[in-house]
Recover the amino acids of this structure.
């Protein structure tokens, strides 16, 4: 789907994270630095056409648009946008099937992913791909894990 990145300057500011419980679950709606987004976080939709610097997270038991369902780290080396797109394909494969319970091709859900920009790759050693699932039918409450949608 869409490649999105994170701002180097934002990352240098130390960012801000949500109020989380002992298990790392978001406790209340908050606008956080994108580098504070974690596996399992639920969030409101972003404009996925450019760099994303902030994310509005909410507890997963509240209505939300998106959920981070898988993370993958890329190997070191030179920044390669084509390699990042290939790495992003993991979001549509077995990781999706394992999370939702059906293959992406058979699902009504959609996927996109966050990935490093050339700047974050080179200046922050950013190698993280985060897979995000969304329901085009509208906001969901609770996790989409095992939903078989």
């Amino acid at each position: 789907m869409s490649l999105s990145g994170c701002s180097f300057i934002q990352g240098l500011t130390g960012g801000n994270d949500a109020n989380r419980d002992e298990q790392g679950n978001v406790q209340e709606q908050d606008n956080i630095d994108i580098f504070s987004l974690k596996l399992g976080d639920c969030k409101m939709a972003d404009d996925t056409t450019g760099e994303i610097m902030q994310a509005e997270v909410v507890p997963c038991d509240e209505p939300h648009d998106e959920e981070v369902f898988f993370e993958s780290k890329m190997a070191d080396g030179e920044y390669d946008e084509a390699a990042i797109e290939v790495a992003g394909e993991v979001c549509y494969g077995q990781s999706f099937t394992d999370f939702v319970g059906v293959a992406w091709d058979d699902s009504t859900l959609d996927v996109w992913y966050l990935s490093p920009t050339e700047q974050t790759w080179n200046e922050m050693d950013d190698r993280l791909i985060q897979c995000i699932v969304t329901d085009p039918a509208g906001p969901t409450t609770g996790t989409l894990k095992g939903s078989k949608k």
Residues 22 and 80 are 37 Å apart (CA to CA). Confidence is low (pLDDT under 50) at residues 1-14. Residues 8-134 form one domain.
